[in-house]
Amino acid sequence: MNGRRVCVVAAASVMALSLAACNRESASGGGSGEGGCSGVTLGLAVANLNANFFNQIKQSVDAEAAKVGATVQVSDAGGDSATQVNQIQDFITRGVGAIIYIPAGATAAGVPVKAAEQADIPVINVDRNAPDAPGVTFIASDSVAASRTLGDWVVEQRNGEGNVAIIQGQIGTTPQVDRQTGFEAALAEAPGMQVVAQQSSDWDPDKSFRIAQDMIQANPDINVFFGQSDQIALGAVQAVEGAKLDPRPLIAGFDGDPAGLEAVRDGRLDATMVQQTQLMGRLAVQSACDVIAGEDVPAEQLQEAFLVTKDDPQQVEEYIAEHP
Fold it and tell me: In this structure, are 103 and 165 located in the same domain?
């Protein structure tokens, strides 16, 4: 992101402090709903609503906010960090009661948190954290443990022998780092599993398809693909199907979004980790309301993710029907 732009944003946030404080007094005063949220406006800053994963969290936030009498203002960064910085500045100027923040990337992720803190607006981070400026609480899946579970399953399926290709998400984002860490920990216990190719797709499914094609061409003996999201893994599925590889590589994803679950059901994707998106959205609203009411919340709220494979079609159908 352009350094000059950050400076402009920072200056604007200072000028907005007085207005934000006044607006917050009117928004939070006299609240009678759960956690003091009745009549409060919450800002929801989403990384990219083109991703079903984030849409599921948004739907859950909307539903939970309605239950407690709060209003939600939504911004979609479209995957651009600079855009999101400006969107959160708008939330600050409007004086929202709290901001539920899913960073669009690792670059400048802490800038909005620092600006909101200056305006005395609590920030609830979801899915991705800003290590240099964490919010009041961080709500996410325990991606290290979950990807370790997935990696252990992959190792078992391949009897400890395999040539592995990893298609990464956006380098430096919390889920990318944690999923890499957990999966590599599983592979480290199996010396016969070798990572022969890995590359970042920036969470872009079209890019992941092209990356997988290149990986297959350079390493035709790949027999495991790990896509660090379901959309990335489905890019690998498309590339494998196009190449008509025989035997077919094992392909694993992460998220448990509807398209990923349907691919597991249909046998095109071998496994995924199902994240509790509905729970995370509810926790984000509840945590925001608690903080507004002056209550303490845990600094970190990590949730379990669930392994689902093509060998358990009943469980897949249950998750498709009702996502956790």
Answer: no
Pick from 5-9, 177-181, 200-204, 301-305: least confident: 5-9
Count of structural domains within the chain: 2
The verdict on 211 and 126 lying in the same domain is no
Say whether both 56 and 195 belong to one domain: no
290, 35 contact by CB (below 8 A):
yes
Residues 315, 189 share a domain: yes
Q: What is the mean pLDDT of residues 94-110?
A: 92
Would you give the DSSP letter of residue 133? S
pTM for the model: 0.86
Domain that holds residue 258: 143-275+308-321
- 208 and 66 part of one domain: no
User: Are residues 74 and 196 both part of a single domain?
Assistant: no
- Give the three-class secondary structure for 231: helix
Q: Which two tokens stand for residue 244?
A: 């008509």
Q: Enumerate the H helices of the chain as residue ranges.
A: 3-15, 17-28, 52-68, 81-94, 110-118, 143-157, 174-188, 205-218, 230-243, 258-265, 277-292, 313-321
**Each residue of 27-81: pLDDT tens digit?**
333 333 355 799 999 999 999 999 899 999 999 999 999 999 999 999 999 999 9
- Sheet containing 224-227: give its strands across: 193-200, 162-168, 224-227, 250-252, 271-274, 306-309
